[in-house]
Amino acid sequence: MPVYVVLLGPPGVGKGTQAKIIAERMGLPHISSGDLFRENIKNETVLGRLAQTFIQKGELVPDDVTIGMIRERLARPDCTGGALLDGFPRTTVQAEALDALLAEFGGQVDYVPYITASEATLVERLS
């Protein structure tokens, strides 16, 4: 069965840094929603062009667009054994969609590490 990890924590806590380490140790692809946005925009995919219209207006990319990108990425051959998701899900709608997606791929969320730091540390890192 595939193994799926969802890494959670506030902005600036170091999720991306830790995700790379955890993914490497577990032999899982690291899937970052930010990286997916950049990849789809660069490759001018339908979803990338759609996402770009919202990003250019300073708006959040809608859940259905983000979910579509995640679905496409999880369908790639390197994800047959699972994946580590970094930055997704961010909403209840995305979490429910992730459960349905993973069921389609024969899995479920197996681990949900939550990384935290003091508020002072987060403010320092983000400023």
Walk me through the structure.
It is a single chain. Helices cover 52% and strands 13% of the residues. The chain has helices spanning 15-26, 33-42, 46-56, 63-74, 92-104, 119-126; strands at 3-7, 30-32, 82-86, 109-111. 25% of the residues are buried. The chain is of the alpha/beta class and 127 residues long. Strands 2-3-1-4 form a 4-stranded parallel sheet, with helices on both faces. It contains 6 helices and 4 strands. It is globular.
Strand arrangement in the largest pleated sheet: 2-3-1-4
| Helix-strand pattern | EHEHHHEHEH
Secondary-structure content class? alpha/beta
Low-confidence stretches: none
Rg, Å, rounded: 15 Å
The proportion of strand residues reads 5-15%
Major β-sheet annotation: 4 strands, parallel
Give the helix tally. 6
Mean pLDDT: 94
Shape estimate: globular
Task: Please give a quick description of this structure.
The chain is of the alpha/beta class and 127 residues long.
Keywords:
127 residues, 6 helices, 52% helix, globular
Secondary-structure map with pairings?
Elements: E1 3-7, H1 15-26, E2 30-32, H2 33-42, H3 46-56, H4 63-74, E3 82-86, H5 92-104, E4 109-111, H6 119-126
Parallel strand pairs: 1-3, 1-4, 2-3
Helix pairs in contact: 2-3, 2-4, 3-4, 4-5
